Amino acid sequence: MSLLQREQEVKLALIESIAHSQQALARILDSVASVTAHSEVSARNLAENIRLLSRYQEEMSRMVTGIRLARIQQGEPGLPWLKEPEYAVRIVRDIQEEC
């Protein structure tokens, strides 16, 4: 077995492990949902643990695949970045002239 093939198998095994972990986490959440509905502290602790586990798994996935997922940003959106309409019209004219 070549080194490249072994590396691919190890990466696949890690991704499968992360997928199984996500499935187990979903089952745990389903089981614990009724209990945490009565305890706000338990719900907060569970949410924090899930957040940390997800971040670890995301980082492992990124290391294996080389794909970085964009972080969801909370807050208010900024102003549109587009410039004045005249600027856009000038760009379109320049492109049409090149063709």
Automatic annotation (TrEMBL):
* Superkingdom classification of source: Bacteria
What name is this protein filed under? Histidine kinase
Taxonomic lineage = Bacteria, Bacillati, Bacillota, Bacilli, Bacillales
Q: Which organism is it from?
A: Paenibacillus illinoisensis
